[in-house]
Amino acid sequence: MLKVGIIGAGRIGRVHGESISKYVKEAEIKAIADPFLNEEQKKWAKEKGIPCAYTDYKKILEDPEIDAVLICSSTDTHSKISIEAIQAHKHVFCEKPIDHDVSRIKEVIEELKKNPSVKYQVGFNRRYDHNFKAVRQAVVDGKVGEPHILKITSRDPEPPSIDYVKVSGGMFLDMTIHDFDMVRYLMDSEVVEVYAAGNVLVDKAIGEAGDIDTAIITLKLENGAMAVIDNSRKSAYGYDQRAEVFGSKGQVTIANDSNSSAVVSTENGVTAEKPMFFFLERYMQAYAEEITEFIDAIVNDKNTPVNADDGLKPVLIGLAAQKSLKENRPVKISEIKF
Amino acid sequence: MLKVGIIGAGRIGRVHGESISKYVKEAEIKAIADPFLNEEQKKWAKEKGIPCAYTDYKKILEDPEIDAVLICSSTDTHSKISIEAIQAHKHVFCEKPIDHDVSRIKEVIEELKKNPSVKYQVGFNRRYDHNFKAVRQAVVDGKVGEPHILKITSRDPEPPSIDYVKVSGGMFLDMTIHDFDMVRYLMDSEVVEVYAAGNVLVDKAIGEAGDIDTAIITLKLENGAMAVIDNSRKSAYGYDQRAEVFGSKGQVTIANDSNSSAVVSTENGVTAEKPMFFFLERYMQAYAEEITEFIDAIVNDKNTPVNADDGLKPVLIGLAAQKSLKENRPVKISEIKF
Amino acid sequence: MLKVGIIGAGRIGRVHGESISKYVKEAEIKAIADPFLNEEQKKWAKEKGIPCAYTDYKKILEDPEIDAVLICSSTDTHSKISIEAIQAHKHVFCEKPIDHDVSRIKEVIEELKKNPSVKYQVGFNRRYDHNFKAVRQAVVDGKVGEPHILKITSRDPEPPSIDYVKVSGGMFLDMTIHDFDMVRYLMDSEVVEVYAAGNVLVDKAIGEAGDIDTAIITLKLENGAMAVIDNSRKSAYGYDQRAEVFGSKGQVTIANDSNSSAVVSTENGVTAEKPMFFFLERYMQAYAEEITEFIDAIVNDKNTPVNADDGLKPVLIGLAAQKSLKENRPVKISEIKF
Amino acid sequence: MLKVGIIGAGRIGRVHGESISKYVKEAEIKAIADPFLNEEQKKWAKEKGIPCAYTDYKKILEDPEIDAVLICSSTDTHSKISIEAIQAHKHVFCEKPIDHDVSRIKEVIEELKKNPSVKYQVGFNRRYDHNFKAVRQAVVDGKVGEPHILKITSRDPEPPSIDYVKVSGGMFLDMTIHDFDMVRYLMDSEVVEVYAAGNVLVDKAIGEAGDIDTAIITLKLENGAMAVIDNSRKSAYGYDQRAEVFGSKGQVTIANDSNSSAVVSTENGVTAEKPMFFFLERYMQAYAEEITEFIDAIVNDKNTPVNADDGLKPVLIGLAAQKSLKENRPVKISEIKF
C-alpha cells in the first residue's frame, strides 16, 4: 500500500484526497500539511482517516514511510517544494503551473535528471476529461484526417478576486495555460509561434491590476496546423469548455456538460440547462482519473502521462503570449529564453 | 400549358394558388370560385393574373379550357364536388378528408373507376415534408431494419373555434387523420386494429361540443409492427410534429423545424427557438411540392402519389378510433362498414 | 457507524457494496452472503474490507451487530427474505420487484405494520437518475403546467437469456416495472387503467418461452392525464431511456446519456456517440444515490423515499398489463385482486 | 412595374432572375446580357418570359425602359459596369466585391455622389440568412449584453479551380470577404486592426498559384471587442457556416442548416445529416430576400441595406489581411491607402 502526503489542504488538495480515498485501491493518505491548517481541514482529515495533519510540509518530506506527495500549495511554492521532494526521493504530483519562471522549472527538471527513479506528474486535469479525451481519440484514430485547425473556447463563470489576479502570473499563465496544454495534447504537435490579442472587457479593476480578462490567441504549430483559443474571465451562462479539431477528412467537436439533459419547451422557447458551473463540477471525474494514473505510474513503474516537460511547455507558450500581447506582434516560442 | 381552377378561395386555396404561380411552370390558374368571394380574394386573384373569379364553382366545371381543379372548399362539399368534377372530366386535387362518410368516399371511388383517365389526388401534404420524407427514406433504405415501433407526436398550437369543432367530424377525422396517413406512409403497411384513449384536458367547451382534445392512439399493423400517436389540440410552445421509427437495426427520428438555429445562453439557461407556429409555416414547402407532383402526374400521365384509396383508409382508421374511444376497446378496421 | 449485510453477491449486490464503501460515510459492510459464493466474490469482499462472507444469508439476519440488509438475491427469494429480515428487526433495502405475487407483497406489508420501526426501501433506482429527477422537478415546479401526456421510451440493448425470460415473470414485471414506477413518480398520480399491445418481433424464442419482446402500453391516470410506454428488448444503438411530460404550459424532455459529447462530422454525416450501453453504465450514479438515501433514512429516521407500497403498485400495474395483453382490452387496476 | 436587366447570365445571375420572377411582385426582367450567351441561357430566358437576351450589356444600359441592373458578371468588370450604369441612371445591384482595387471602388463611390438618386446595393447575401439575422437580432436586442468576442467559422466544401484561384484576388478577397462583412454586420462596429495566420494545407497547387487555403484571422474592433474567423477551402462534411457572439450577459450561436432533421441511431452511432452542400443550397432564400429588398429600396425610395461603403470596407479589411499575412504582423486598416 502506497503512502501519500498532501501538501496544501485547500480545495484542490482535498479534491485529490477524496479521489484517493474513493477510487485508488493501491494508495492511502498518511499525512496532510498546510501552514494555515484550520479546524475544518482537521475535521476533514479525521473523517478520511488520515493519521497526520501538520502545519509544516517538511514533516511529510521527512517521513520515510511516505512514498509520494501531492503539491497543492500556492503556486509560488510549487517549484521549491518540488525540488525538495525530489531530493527526498518522493514521487511528486504537482499542481499546475510548476512555476511562472522558466529557470525555476529548469531546476526542477535538472533535479529530476539526478533522481531518475522519481516519478513527476503535472496537474493538467483536462487531459482526463471524457470529452477532451474523445477529441484526442478521434484525432489519433484519423477520423478527421490531417488536423488543420483547432479551436478552443475556454471561459470561466467568474473572475478570480483582484488579490488573486495580482499574484496569478496573469491570465495566460493562470487560466490559458490549460488551453495551451490542450493544444499540445489534442494536436500532438509543438507550438512554434503565438499571437495574442487581449483586452479588459469584463472588469476594469482587472486592467488596473495589470492583467486582461478577454483574449483571442492564435498559435502556429510545427506540423503546419493552426490553433485558436478564446478566453473570457466571465461567462454569464457558466463554465464554457469546448473544442473543435478540423482536418482533411472532417471535424470533431465537443460540447459542454450539464447536470441533466432536460429541455423545457414553453411559449418562451426551448430551454436546456446551463453548462456545469465551474471546474470542480465539470472536471471532478478528471481529477480522480489523473490521481489514479499518477499512483498507477508509481505502482507499475510507468512513465507519468504528464511530465515535467509537459509542465514547462505551456509556460513557455504563456510567456510568449504575454510578450506578444505587450509588443502586439507574433512571437516565436524560441524567443523565450530557457 | 395546363389550366387550373381553384374551388374555395380560403387560406389553403390561396396557398395552392401561390405555389402554382411560383413553382409550377406547366400550369396556370384560369379561375377561382368561392360562394363568399370577397374583395380581398378578388384583389389577390387580380395580382396573380387569374382571369376569372366566380361565386359559383360550377362555372369552373363547365369551362372546357380548364383541365384540373383544386377542391379547397368546406369539407362537407369535398365528395360532392369531387364527383361532379370527375364527371366533367377534370383532374382533381381534393383537400383532406374526402368525406367523413365512407359511403360517400366509395361513390367517389366508383366514379373514378368509370373515368379512368381522370387523375385524383388527396391533400395529405405531410408526405412532402422534408423531415417525414427523410424518415420514410431511412425506412425504405433499410437503415432501421425491420420496423417495430412508430411513434408520432402531433400537437396543434391552438384549438380551432368551438364552431369549427362542431362541424369538424371530431379530432380523429380532422387532425389525427394526417397522422393516420403518416402511419401508412412511414410504415408501408396497413392498420388492422386501433385503440384510442382520449380526454378533454385543454378546454371543457370542446368536451361540451362532443369532442376530445387530447389522445393517445395505439395501432396494430398488418406486418406485426405497432404505432402510437399522441395528440393535443394545444401545445404552448407551437406546432409539435415529430416522428420516430424504431426497428431491428436502429431508429430514425425527426425534430421540429424552427425559424433559425440561434441558441441564446444566459444565466437563465440555453434557449433555442420554438418550433414554427403552425402548419402554414411548417408545411409551406410541402404544399408547393404536393401541387407540383399533382400537375406532374397529369402532364406526364403518372399515377398520383396520394390516390382516392389513400384518402379512404385514414377515414376508416379515424372511424375505428372513434368507435374505440366510445366503447373503450380495441377496434378492428374491418369492423367499419364500407 | 451503521453495519450493513448484503444478501446476494451478484452484480447488483456488488454495485451497492461499491457505493457504500465509496460514498456512504455513515455505513460499513460487515457481511456478504450468497449460496453460490465464488472465489471472485470472496476476493472482492476482501478488497473492500468486508469481514464476513457467508453462503447462508441467515447468518446475516442472526448477527445482532448488523443494522440493515440489502436483498440482492434472485427475485423469487425477495419477499421471503424481506419478511425474515423485518422479523429480525433489520432495515431492508430490497431489489425490485418484491414479488410477482401480490399476496406475498401483502405479507411483507403486513409484517412491516407489525414492525413500524423497520425502514423498507425498494430498489427503483431510476428515481435517482439525474435526468428523470430533472423531469419530475420540472413537473413539480409547474414548468409544464397541468400534465396531460407522459411518454416513456424504455428499450434494452440486449434481451436476457431465454432461461432468464422463463423465470422473469414476463417483460412487464421484469422490465416495464421500472417504467410503471416512473409513471407514478413523474406524474404524481395513480394509474387506474392499462391497455397493453405487445408482440414478438425481436426473437421468436422469447415468444416460445411465453413472453413478448416489444410493447406499447397506454395508461390512464387518476388525474385524467394519460401515459404511454414503449418497450423493446433489443435496441441496436444501446440502452434507450427517455421521457417527455407534456402539459398545459409546455413540455419537458430528457435525452439519453452518452460517454462524451464528441460529434464527428465527415462526408458520411454528423455522428454523435451512442447512448451508454446498459443500466450499469447509465444508472451507476443513481445506484449510489439510492443507497445513500436508504442509509440516510435509517440514520436520520426519515421515511424511505420508495416504500413497500411503491413496490406493490407497479406490480399491480404489471399484472393488469399482462391481463390486458392476454384479453386484448383495457384493464382497470382495480380488477387485480389484492 | 419596375424593369430590370441582368448583366451576366451565369449561375448567380440566373439565381437572382428566378428570385425576381417568383417573389418580387413589383419587378419584371426585361433583358439579360452575357458576352458568352449560350443556348441553355437563352432557353432559360425564354422560359422566364424575358423578352431580350443580348451579348452586349451596353444594350441594357441604353434601354430607357430599364430602371435597374443586376451586375453578375466577372469580378474584374464590376466597378467598370457599375460606373457606366450609374452614369446611365440605372439603379445598381452589384455582386461582391465591387473591385479588388480600392481606388476603383472609390471611383464608384464618387460617381454615386454625383448621382444621388441612384440606388446602389452590394450582394452580401449572408445578411439575409435566417440564422445570421437571428444572431444580429439577439445582439441588437441586448440578449448577450455588450459584445466581447465574435467567432465565425466559414469553410467551403470544395476549393475553386486553380484557374479561378489565380484571378480570385486571393482567398481573403474572394471568400473571407463575406466573413469580414459579417463581422461588421453582427458587431455593428468597424474593424481597426487585423492579424492573419494562413497556410496551404488543402492543396499544394493553391499555394503554387500564390494563395492560401486555410486561415485564422483575428480582428480588433473600434468598440474594444474582438473577432476571429477561421477559413478552409475544403470541408469534407460540406459548407460550414457558423457564428457565435459572446458578451457580458451571454452568448448567441448558430448552427448549420441541413436538408432534414432526421437522425439515424444504429450500432455505429447517432448520425444526423451533413450541412447543406454549398452557398446555393444554404443561401437560396437569402438571395431572394436581398433582391426583394433591393427592389423595395427603389420602389419605396429607401436607403439600400448594403451600400457602396459596405462594399468598400470588407475590401479594405481583406487588403489589410493580405498585408498581415505577408508581413506576419497585425496591420491597421488605416495603413491601407484609400
Automatic annotation (TrEMBL), chains A, B, C, D:
InterPro entries: Gfo/Idh/MocA-like_OxRdtase_N, GFO_IDH_MocA-like_dom, Myo_inos_IolG, NAD(P)-bd_dom_sf. The keyword Thylakoid does not apply. One of its GO terms (molecular function) is inositol 2-dehydrogenase (NAD+) activity. The keyword NAD does not apply. Gene3D superfamilies: Dihydrodipicolinate Reductase, domain 2, NAD(P)-binding Rossmann-like Domain. Belongs to the Gfo/Idh/MocA family. Its EC number is 1.1.1.18. Residues 132-252 form the GFO/IDH/MocA-like oxidoreductase domain. This is Inositol 2-dehydrogenase. Residues 2-124 form the Gfo/Idh/MocA-like oxidoreductase N-terminal domain. It is an enzyme of class 1 (oxidoreductase). Keywords: Oxidoreductase.
